[in-house]
Amino acid sequence: MARKMIRVLLVEDEEIHRVMARAAVKAAAGAEDDDVLDVAENGAAAVRRVREVAPYDLILMDRQMPVMDGHEATRRIRAMGVTTPIVAVSSDGLPADVEAFIGAGADHFTPKPLSKEKLENILAKFGLT
């Protein structure tokens, strides 16, 4: 059975994490092309993408980025009335870090690095499989 086509916004400033996440998202979503994933390199770019591009099914948000961090980007996206699931993806996984992201409006937290298995669980959690 084929998976439904989804659109994911990855908000990540580090190239190596973008490469790994791209591969994991494509594998977890069963996508053969790059149409499933859109990338923003900082929080301000993410806010612009959400405002200007067709709706996303999932947003994967890093915390530490130049220009605007993930907490502020998440707050601004939520302030626009966007209800798309936002999953915080960070190396900072202490309880206080997770609470800060959830408090900013994220729906879920997963530690880096992203993997196919983690993303399959996230997609299932939000009914995107």
UniProtKB/TrEMBL annotation:
Sorted alphabetically, which keywords does the UniProt record give? Answer: Phosphoprotein
Top-level taxon of the source organism = Eukaryota
- What SMART domains does UniProt report for this protein, alphabetically? REC
**Does the record carry Manganese as a key word?**
no
What's a BP term from Gene Ontology annotated to this protein? phosphorelay signal transduction system
Q: Does the keyword Metal-binding apply?
A: no
Write the protein's name: Response regulatory domain-containing protein
Give the originating organism: Zizania palustris (Northern wild rice)
